[in-house]
## 1
Amino acid sequence: MKTLSEEHKQKIRESVLKWNREGGMPPEIRKRIADNQRGRKMTKEAKQKISQANKGNAAWNKGLTKETDERIRKNIENRTKTIKRMYREGELKPWNLGKKWSQEVKDKISLTRKGKTYEEIMGKEKAQEFKKKLSDIMKQRFLGKSNPMYGRSGELNPHFGKPAAHGKNTFRDDLSHFCHSKWEANYCRYLLWTNKRYKYEPKTFILALPDGKKTGYTPDFFVENEGWQELKGWENRSETKKWEIFQQQYPNEKFELISRDKYKNIEKLYKFIIPNWEI
């Protein structure tokens, strides 16, 4: 087999690039070739020949990304447009259309994604697009009069004066009750470990806000002989600091705010000692 010299290869590359710059293959010929090739499958022998011919040769796009190479970016954009069109026109269908995942598969997916952000799971660009779509959907469903709670604020709210609801996955078997967060669950374990009897969110107090409206406030814990306690990791996130209003309007109730620093000190001492501690 005759081997082309590097000089000859370079001339071929230059001529191909020049041809592409000056127009390349006409669109009608491209379409004709695509129509002829559509639905055809490459034989196993042909795949093996191509594989053998390319063995030892690095791919032209190795190490290139859409951020660093214009050709890669255009290829990705064109492929994405084509795939979207084919899905839209029914030429392509999802491989798992009509199929249900087993519980085992769901558990595996959940485990791989647990504790990760959208950016870590799908990348920064896709995460931003996903968040925007999610935001638009939620706005359409719950904005203004579409919101089932529209016009039912304050005392008109059916949950007024009641503790916040818990998600179905927030039950802690070792505590035998729900918790809103792992910090709260860990603090309950700390109380039990130190032989302190407590109740979790046992009572909701009605507070009068500065604007005259009323709201409910449920302290996290009632600890025997110590009174009410509120675990607040991020005090500055709350515009209305209900625990401060609670102390003003219920001065006879004993109250302690468990700050982030205090919780972290407890965690340092007990996280490797107390069973089931959540990190």
## 2
Amino acid sequence: MDTADVYRTFAVREARGPYRELAAAIAADPGLIALIDALPQPKRQPNLLLASVRYEGGPATEQDGFRTWAKDHWPQVERTVLTRRTQTNEAGRCASLLPVLAQVEGPLALIEVGASAGLCLQPDRYRYVYDARPPIGRGPVTLTCATEGDPPIPDALPGIAWRAGIDLAPVDVTDPGERRWLECLVWPGEDTRRDRLRQALAIAAENPPRLVEGDATATLPGLVAEAKNHGTVVVYHSALLPYLTPGARDRFVDLVTSLDVRWISNEGTARLPHLKVPDGDRLAFVTALDGVPKALTDPHGSWLNWL
């Protein structure tokens, strides 16, 4: 798939709001596609480019002249693209994780791989509302999730005795520039997501999570050995695998399954092809426990279909 096709597919399959029209317009702009093609292959992804233009002060929509601005300011855009990563840290995914975490005997020792700012390392610090059920937990951040099937929604939040995250470039939640980058990764018009991000970052800044810089395959075994002293070790990740090569993905899966841990994966349906799930017409993640699919879920945690 060439770069124009990547942006076309993004427009059709993933983008919402202004980004749908904008991604299609980028795909039809040979001049901008040529600039993107000159970037290293992992840096050509739509979310990274779109956020980088906004971070540098450019417009967010086609109507406001995004493509012209990006081409006119390409050295600035290129600099940000090359130095930043797509680290969308969506606290809402904790609503997808909670019913699966509830199936693991606690206390829990959590290790998130690809943790970014660690917002999904604090599932016990949010308030959850599933359909018309009574809320679970307390706090300034409320995560709402519509359900299908019969998910095992817990009555209380899990007990978490220990937590740490791994990331190639951990995000410092106390740094205003880092927080602004995460905000630029939220699509325009998604004010609820932006506000939720700000609130979750504020919670994290009060008690910053432990984030270890490093490659997962090199760092994970040592953290697992440490975590075992505190409770049942749960290794989990959301939207991590698209950023790994197929070989690195296979090595990571082989490592996780060789360790004495519970493993929760929350990834797009094509990323772990051995997970057999029903076909659907919605863009969905598969949330699985120890390689067994448990639910189809919204990538941002707004709905889940328990299998």
## 3
Amino acid sequence: MIYSSKYKVVQCGLLLLLSLFVTVACSDDDGPYMPSPEANAQRTLIVFQPWADDLQNAFTNNVRMMERSIEEHGGLQRQRLLVFRATAPTEGSLVEILYGRGSCFRDTLKVYRNFNAIKPEGMSQVLSDVRQFATPATARYALIVGCHGTGWLPPLRTTAPKVRPKSFGGWYGDEQIAIPDFVDVLLQSQMPMDFICFDDCYMAGVEVAYDLRHVTRWLIGSACEMLRYGLPYDLIFSDLIAPEPRFDSVMSKFLSFYTQYNPPCGTLAAIDCSEVEAMAQIMREINGQYEFDESQRAKLQTLDGYYPTLFFDMGDYVEHLCGDSVLLQRAREQLSRLVPYKVNTPHYYTASGGGGRVNLRTFSGLTISDPSVHGQATSNFANSAWWQATH
């Protein structure tokens, strides 16, 4: 009886254990599947999409293209991908893109209300949340920014009576952040970036590169207007997020895509910000010896549709400014180190000044506003760190 009773107790225990196992297993199979984040991520990639009311469809498409690339290439290459998206001027969410079973999944980490991500304090909070949810403080980071851009200049459409120069964000002053404020946020966050990619207009400027020199190695962006479609992430994303970005491949795929796009217009460059100080020193020498000949203005390669022009091709400007062959050759060589990767279609597109295609006879990958006589430029030169370093 004792044996029998003990056997029944053991038997019941085994049945109970088996029942629990079956219940857990069924629940795991039948419930919603969510893969775990990369446990040993080498880098956290942040996609930052602040409020821009006319770019919402583009933002949605951009993230879907990233997901298609991740699925096509079988994962995130030991990275974590966090996307901040503003869904209204004062609302947004932070979502992690996860990969498992051949598909991408979205895990909402935080919802923001009564919150403006484009203000310095808002961006600081987003970056702090990224650190909390993602990789340790010692991890590598990279940043993709999607929005409108005006390079180093104030927003060209604004309801704000006064805004600081150098900005990106929405259309209006209260929807923009100044590049110096952006740099301060990154410095305070202690999150140095492997690269900052601006999927915006006019961000591939030497003034912007100079401002970013202490917070990122690479600046990736367009010297001209970026068409609403943005970067073809489904084609370039795996190359962009490689442990060491494959910029040659990024450039060739971008050019192939926009050569066939309608309109067939696009420029892209990868700028090595570690080389911008040396460029500034050479430009200081040139500016100390030469003044721009106003009769040459009409010969300069423009990269916008504004009148007067705001953004000129930097390489072309230096060619017309410097009369010393030795100094000019030094500038050429340093510019090639500063911009080792660049592509362009035969024309760029501008919606300004009536819109349309403009011929590109030369392209260095980088803009400069030094020769501009536009009031937006001349009234803000004194606020530019690049201008202060080179004049």
## 4
Amino acid sequence: MHRDITGRYISSPAGGEMVNAFVPNPLPPTPPLEINEARQRLLERATLALGRLDSVSTLLPDPQLSLYAYVRREAVLSSQIEGTQSSLSDLLLFELDEAPGVPFDDVVEVSNYIAALEYGMARLREDFPLCNRLLREMHARLMARGRGSDKSPGEFRRSQNWIGGTRPGKARFVPPPPLEVEPCMAALEQFIHQPAEATPVLIKAALAHVQFETIHPFLDGNGRLGRLLIAMLLHQGGLLAQPLLYLSLYFKQHRPVYYELLDRVRTQGDWEAWVDFFLEGVEQTAQGAVQTAQRLVALFQQDSQRIQASGRGAANALRVLHALRSHPVATLKLLRTETGMSFPTVGKVMQTLMELGIARELTGQRRNRVFVYDGYLSILNEGGEAL
């Protein structure tokens, strides 16, 4: 639907020049979002796909395992959209404190993302509302270390920012002036708290994401927090017990369309085209997440059977394999701690797993060796190549 511009422009100083900053109208859209028959079917399919994902996650042998893996994969993908070059392997090595040569700022950004998500989910489980205070607290953790830590973590911005372009006057988009940030975010918070009868949860997540990106309330980290907001809304709205759906890969694969649709919402009021894109992304991503979960279960079963068939210390090898499912990149020291086995026994088991083609040693050294569960990591890495 064509609604014309969905806000107003205010002249604002930025970088020594005056720019036209965009202040969005409060949600929901006016006139209301058109839910025609085709869009209703899209909404139903996306909701059904989320339901399948939610049920599959409860059937996994260890749901926390999947959460561990998905959160880290999403952290890498979301940070890559912002230009980091870290891979999932970099992150897992960093978490081992064994990351020589890994770009520190890049991998710290990814690690901060995990901290922000885990903090936000813990607060929601304590029945703390999804509100501006929580978003600021998550932002403080997102920007706690590394690049951007000097850009007012946890505080709404007090200066004008802009998106794209080498200077404000050439920017692709200029968000609201600093004095408009608080009122805009207060209105967004009010919309988020509207009952589901007023706006279905998936539609609310779609609209709120665009509004957050348009307000761009922080000096840095808006993209990552805006994507986290989607997962938080789906969890709070009861569609997912665990935050297992992330749209960063979908947004990464469709970046030009994503940015074009955000602009069309602002300049033409075409919320419908954005909602269709978002719902298609939810359906595709949920289906992909179900398939990934099923492939991981199949991999674990297949590798367990190979170990049992080998007959060589199968009981110990299965214990180490279980530890590798929690830590697909690991040292002998970590595996010893996880299994309670001795260094010689863990070392012997890892030799067996390498001979079976299940694990691989990364360093080529005799001491301080690092092992990777290859099949597991390759499944998680799909789509996670640095841009």
